[in-house]
Design goal:
Blueprint lengths: L1 H5 L7 E6 L9 E7 L3 E6 L2 E6 L4 E4 L6 E2 L7 H5 L7
Antiparallel strand pairs: 1-2, 1-5, 2-3, 3-4, 5-6
Length: 87
């Protein structure tokens, strides 16, 4: 299930931040409108919010699988075609 999420485009999916060293980011949610190598841009309450991948863990689209942003620091077009090992 996690591999399926990692190998898909995240743009247009709902996201919720589940963990971060900055407690102000925990619980933030919205629609992903852009993704770069280092950041994810959310549309939250009609405002664009840019979050650093290196400082968050998040869930996509109501999934139970938590994605560690630090491990996803690559361009989306590279991430989609990459093979990830199951742990």
């Amino acid at each position: 299930m996690v591999n399926a999420l990692l190998n898909q485009s995240w743009i247009g999916r709902d996201m919720i931040v589940t963990s971060s060293p900055d407690i102000g980011l925990v619980g933030r949610s919205g629609l992903i409108v852009d993704e770069t190598r280092e950041t994810i841009t959310l549309l939250e309450n009609n405002r664009e919010v840019i979050l650093s991948k290196s400082s968050i863990e998040f869930n996509l689209g109501g999934s139970d699988a938590t994605i560690v942003g630090m491990l996803m620091r690559q361009r989306s077009e590279d991430r989609i075609y990459r093979n990830y090992r199951s742990e």
